[in-house]
């Protein structure tokens, strides 16, 4: 092939630059706040948000009431126990919804191609990821905390038991809300890494369920330590820790689950940021 | 102004864009032409910092894309019409875009009106036809009222009315002094809209020229004739100072002459003619010849007929895979 034939058009014509279009819309430095406003519009304008969070609220409240009703029918009274831990079952089921929404918040942009529009408008990958995380985290934190408090109040009202302490109340509401929001944020980071909704949701459900299932089948005595660790640090047991009904009696206690979730989320989010910056869209 | 310098993109072993350098100047429509797989979309994605270049750089008004304050106000792009969330309404798709760049919310309705989607603004973009999707993509590109506009194959899938609308829109926008960069794989489409032309093939620059020059250089007009007294006619033509090309099928092609001139010449020399006609090779032929060696996906021409139809153009070497990837 011969050298390309090149001939440039003149830039100047009659002393005036050819292109001189100036938009009347002023240009200012866009901020994280602008990105947050944009992400808020995005999350509230798709149906999946309403559906996943709606189903979560229904599951938490519905299962909570059913469990309390079941206990009230049985002979065994709560006695010296508080009614608060009965919220555990609804939260465990609701976590699936939070995972789904977390993954969809970013992976659906890859599925639809919206991510290209998003990153063209806001080329800073860090800002996009931060804005999505903030909006998602605050939304899920608020809804799960309020719902957990509502479920707790219903259960306590339905059953006679020991009155829960203030500490227990805070962990069973704000603690649960924080844990769920962090779990969702972890899912968001995984969704950003995997960029495929179904794959990321499946992986996250595996993360929630597999450690417990695997531990159940570790019969060999040489695996006892691994089995114990899987039991103690599996996500269902960590949720139970927040309700002071640890399945194992050892391992994390108090607010530990929230700190563990925060550390794991921060690590995966770091990878997600790194990958988003390096990869083609 | 967009400046592309030494831009290179490698996907594994394959080079999609190979040391590409050109400038897109303001105030004109610049056509970006190349066969499928030539690297047009990859180049455009690198301009928008969606794909990270293996080498080289792109500067928009002297800045890297990531350095632009509110990029939507500098450069609006239509990459593909589907780059929107289908579950969101057209209005909301544009609203979240406007908010991220602090564009007044009133602009959303303005651009919806410009592209004629006001009536379906509240409908989910999932149900949009290809043409409506394309209009929504153009609305997104116009949202920030940018100085530079970039369209990747904007007429694909549009009906004639839509194609006409886009052509006029691009001309209007360029007339306002904006920089327009539009890709296509159709030469005929470019001939109608673009003033400047950048042609690439297999990621390499093949031509960077004004449209007028390209037409002058490449649309060859000539006279074709067929005669039983071929030798006699050839003598007469060389005497008359004409340049003659002998085509494969025995016809003669005379550049830069008219059929009247040649007919009279034949009459003066008493030569019998079986055919005498004026011919013009189309721009499409010129484009296909230029990119023939760099077409990535060759089709086998079953019937063995030259697909170009241009009499003088032997046509690209369709079906010959031997030179694939080496010619360019």
Automatic annotation (TrEMBL), chain A:
Keyword Acetylation part of the UniProt annotation: no
Transmembrane segments: 50-71, 83-107, 134-157, 169-194, 201-224, 258-276
Signal sequence range: none
Keyword terms, alphabetized: Membrane, Transmembrane, Transmembrane helix
Record has RNA-binding as a keyword: no
Stored PANTHER family: INTEGRAL MEMBRANE PROTEIN-RELATED (PTHR37305), MEMBRANE PROTEIN (PTHR37305:SF1)
Descriptive protein name: ABC transporter
From TrEMBL, chain B:
An annotated Gene Ontology molecular function: ATP binding
Region (Disordered): 298-328
Transmembrane regions: none
Superkingdom: Bacteria
A family per Pfam: ABC_tran
Domain ABC transporter: 2-227
Keyword tags: ATP-binding, Nucleotide-binding, Transport
SUPFAM superfamilies: P-loop containing nucleoside triphosphate hydrolases (SSF52540)
PANTHER family with a match to the protein in the record: ABC TRANSPORTER, ATP-BINDING PROTEIN
UniProt record similarity statement: Belongs to the ABC transporter superfamily.
Designated name of the protein: ABC transporter ATP-binding protein
């Amino acid at each position: 092939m011969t050298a390309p034939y090149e001939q440039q058009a003149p830039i100047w014509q009659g002393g005036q630059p050819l292109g001189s279009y100036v938009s009347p819309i002023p240009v200012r430095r866009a901020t994280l706040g602008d990105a947050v406003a944009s992400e808020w519009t995005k999350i509230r304008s798709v149906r999946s948000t309403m559906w996943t969070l709606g189903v979560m609220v229904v599951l938490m409240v519905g299962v909570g009431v059913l469990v309390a009703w079941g206990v009230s029918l049985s002979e065994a009274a709560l006695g010296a126990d508080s009614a608060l831990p009965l919220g555990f079952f609804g939260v465990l089921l609701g976590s699936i919804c939070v995972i789904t929404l977390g993954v969809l918040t970013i992976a659906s942009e890859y599925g639809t191609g919206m991510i290209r529009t998003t990153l063209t408008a806001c080329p800073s990958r860090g800002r996009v990821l931060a804005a999505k995380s903030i909006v998602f985290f605050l939304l899920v934190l608020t809804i799960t905390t309020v719902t957990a408090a509502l479920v707790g109040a219903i259960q306590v009202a339905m059953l006679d038991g020991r009155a829960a302490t203030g500490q227990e109340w805070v962990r069973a509401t704000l603690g649960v809300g924080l844990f769920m929001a962090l779990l969702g944020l972890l899912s968001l980071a995984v969704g950003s890494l995997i960029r495929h909704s179904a794959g990321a949701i499946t992986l996250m459900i595996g993360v929630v369920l597999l450690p417990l299932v695997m531990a159940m089948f570790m019969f060999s005595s040489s695996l006892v330590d691994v089995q114990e660790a899987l039991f103690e640090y599996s996500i269902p047991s960590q949720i139970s820790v927040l309700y002071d009904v640890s399945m194992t009696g050892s391992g994390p206690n108090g607010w530990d689950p929230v700190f563990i979730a925060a550390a794991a989320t921060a690590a995966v989010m770091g990878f997600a940021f790194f990958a988003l910056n390096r990869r083609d869209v | 102004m967009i400046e592309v310098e030494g831009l290179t993109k490698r996907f594994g072993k394959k080079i999609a864009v190979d040391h590409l350098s050109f400038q897109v100047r303001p105030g004109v429509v610049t056509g970006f032409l190349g066969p499928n797989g030539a690297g047009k979309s990859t180049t455009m994605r690198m301009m928008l910092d969606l794909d990270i270049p293996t080498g080289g750089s792109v500067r928009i008004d002297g800045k890297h894309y990531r350095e632009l304050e509110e990029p939507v106000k500098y450069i609006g792009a239509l990459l593909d019409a589907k780059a929107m969330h289908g579950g969101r309404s057209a209005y909301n798709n544009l609203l979240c875009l406007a908010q991220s760049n602090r564009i007044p919310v009133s602009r959303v309705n303005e651009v919806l009106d410009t592209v004629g989607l006001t009536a379906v603004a509240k409908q989910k973009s999932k149900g949009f036809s290809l043409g409506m999707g394309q209009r929504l993509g153009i609305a997104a590109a116009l949202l920030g009222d940018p100085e530079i506009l970039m369209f990747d194959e904007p007429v694909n899938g549009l009906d004639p009315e839509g194609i006409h609308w886009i052509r006029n829109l691009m001309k209007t926008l360029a007339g306002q002094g904006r920089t327009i960069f539009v890709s296509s794989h159709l030469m005929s489409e470019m001939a109608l809209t673009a003033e400047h032309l950048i042609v690439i093939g297999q990621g390499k620059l093949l031509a960077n020229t004004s449209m007028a020059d390209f037409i002058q250089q490449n649309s060859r007009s000539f006279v074709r004739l067929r005669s039983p007294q071929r030798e006699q006619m050839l003598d007469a033509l060389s005497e008359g100072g004409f340049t003659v090309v002998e085509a494969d099928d025995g016809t003669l092609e005379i550049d830069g002459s008219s059929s009247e001139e040649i007919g009279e010449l034949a009459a003066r020399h008493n030569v019998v003619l079986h055919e005498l006609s004026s011919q013009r090779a189309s721009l499409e032929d010129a484009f296909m010849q230029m990119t023939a060696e760099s077409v990535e996906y060759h089709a086998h021409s079953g019937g063995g007929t030259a697909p170009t139809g241009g009499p003088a153009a032997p046509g690209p070497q369709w079906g010959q895979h031997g030179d694939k990837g080496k010619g360019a």
